[in-house]
Amino acid sequence: MRTVKGYQLQSQSRLTQSLEDYLEMVYRLERGVGFVRLGELAQRLGVGAPSASKMVQKLGSLGFVHYERYGVIRLTNTGREAGSYLIRRHEVVRRFFQQLHPRGDTLQETELVEHCLSPGTVERLEQLVQVLEQNPKLLP
Question: Which region holds residue 105: left if phi is over 0, alpha if psi is between -120 and 50, else beta?
Fold first, then answer.
């Protein structure tokens, strides 16, 4: 048994929660346009440009984005795949919480929980959500 930090350290190759948030936002903003400007990314995430620049450089060193200093951010194929998965994971968790609390604001819970789930858990959770959505009487 480990602490949360212990599990995070065990999976060093995995993106941190912050890097996942950055990659997810880059993916959202890049769709349709093909690139993201650093200032827009920083604004959307509510951080300063220097902080965003450091995180984007880390994503670049991990092979998820191409970043031109003071320029634009473009996802690599690896970044696009990872971003797509992060959006899917977010939507699965959001839909699950929406089933539990149909009239509630589920965004905060989604943001807190999504980073902790393995791909296998996301897959099974998606199957459960589909069952719940197809059978609304299961959860009164």
Answer: beta
Which tokens go with 76? 């690599």
C-beta separation of 129 from 92 below 8 A: yes
Taking the model in full, what pTM does it have? Answer: 0.85
Distance between CA atoms of 55 and 60, rounded to whole angstroms? 9
CA distances from 84 to 87, 100, 113, 117 (A): 5, 25, 18, 15
Q: Answer yes or no: do 76 and 32 share one domain.
A: yes
Q: Which residue range forms the structural domain that includes residue 54?
A: 14-80
What would the DSSP string read from start to end of 65-107? EEE-TTSEEEE-HHHHHHHHHHHHHHHHHHHHHHHH-TTS--H
Number of helices (H), then strands (E), in the chain: 7, 3
CATH at residue 98: 1.10.60
Q: Which residues of the chain have pLDDT under 50?
A: 7-13
In 3D, which of 45, 81, 47, 34 has the Cα closest to residue 62? 81
Block residue for tokens 């604001």 = 105
